[in-house]
Q: What sequence folds into this?
């Protein structure tokens, strides 16, 4: 009897080892990450656990962890270093940002479309193109690749007092709305949660890569994180396809945008919300009879200074880049934003006392 039990234990041990080897070999040959939705948290958790290069100019190479925003670009980068240039504070600029009381200062927050990921030159970034349209403009590009609207708001909240802009501009693409729902996207990030009718910032402070990696390892284990991530991915896909995802996502982001606008007003700055059209949104056939958009829903609940670039892009009759903006898209957006700025009360007050217009 003992001999039989020992034999079964030995067989079970051999099978367990064989299964482990098979799983490890299979994991090497087959990229499990390809089965996960690239828009969901499980995919980004798996990428970190795998220690794979992180997309969007590689966060771990070109960005530093930030305790509340998640990550910010490293300072003093050159195009040779990372494909883009940053100043000594890590902003997308070849010059330093100093307070210019004689100029009209525009603080722009956004994601990679504002930061200028994949731009062919520093001049092909739309905030830089905006500044060239009038020498009286002082444009500060606070865009960061991969940011959600929540991280943009935190950037405003933490930076506005130092730079004293007359106008704060939040530029978003549709995907940024979903990013606000996540705790990990490319890297660990902040997450606003509802406490009754109030928003509370959670998932901070955010530490260095090794700390984030260790947190995930404690949560998912070392050998078999795949099954749990697969279950989370299925749940995410089901939520995304459900009737709950849009109202839950919009409700959170609408409050964040309203709080961003209130923050700007509290610092004597006007606020402008800009919807940047990109990708499938540049194709007229994308907008079917049942199409709904976040901006219209937001405005139905109360006025807010805004600019939607969609109709201008669609009516221009051009072939646009479907990915990150290149020079033509950057200059087009800059012109649209400049026209809208000239309608703002803050600009009208400034123009009454400033010198004559001119390009820089």
A:
């Amino acid at each position: 009897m003992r001999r039989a039990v020992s034999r079964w234990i030995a067989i079970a041990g051999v099978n367990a080892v064989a299964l482990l080897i098979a799983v490890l070999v299979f994991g090497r040959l087959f990229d499990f990450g390809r089965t996960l939705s690239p828009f969901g948290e499980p995919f980004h958790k798996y990428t970190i656990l795998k220690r794979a290069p992180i997309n969007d100019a590689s966060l771990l190479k070109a960005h530093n962890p930030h305790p509340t925003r998640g990550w910010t670009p490293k300072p003093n980068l050159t195009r040779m270093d990372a494909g883009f240039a940053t100043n000594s504070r890590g902003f997308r600029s070849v010059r330093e940002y100093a307070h210019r009381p004689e100029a009209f200062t525009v603080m722009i927050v956004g994601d990679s479309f504002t930061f200028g990921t994949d731009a062919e030159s520093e001049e092909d970034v739309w905030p830089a193109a905006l500044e060239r349209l009038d020498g009286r403009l002082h444009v500060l590009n606070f865009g960061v690749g991969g940011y959600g609207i929540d991280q943009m708001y935190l950037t405003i909240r933490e930076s506005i007092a130092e730079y004293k802009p007359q106008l704060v501009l939040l530029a978003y693409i549709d995907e940024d709305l979903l990013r606000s729902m996540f705790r990990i996207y490319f890297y660990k990030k902040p997450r606003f949660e509802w406490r009754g009718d109030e928003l509370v910032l959670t998932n901070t402070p955010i530490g260095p890569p090794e700390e984030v990696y260790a947190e995930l390892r404690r949560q998912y284990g070392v050998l078999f994180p795949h099954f749990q991530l697969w279950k989370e991915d299925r749940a995410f896909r089901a939520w995304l396809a459900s009737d709950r995802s849009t109202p839950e996502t919009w409700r959170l982001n609408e409050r964040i945008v309203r709080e961003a606008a209130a923050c700007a007003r509290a610092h004597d700055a006007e606020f402008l919300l800009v919807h940047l059209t990109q990708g499938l949104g540049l194709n007229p056939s994308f907008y079917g009879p049942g199409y709904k958009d976040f901006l219209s829903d937001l405005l139905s609940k109360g006025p807010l200074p805004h600019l939607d670039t969609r109709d201008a892009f669609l009516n221009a009759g051009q072939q646009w880049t479907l990915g990150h903006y290149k020079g033509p898209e950057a200059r087009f957006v800059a012109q649209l934003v400049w026209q809208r700025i000239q309608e703002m009360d803050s600009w009208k007050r400034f123009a009454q006392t400033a010198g004559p217009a001119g390009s820089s």
About this structure: Residues 283 and 289 are 14 Å apart (CA to CA). The mean pLDDT is 89. Residues 38-353 form a domain with the Rossmann fold fold (CATH 3.40.50.1110). The chain has 15 helices and eleven strands.
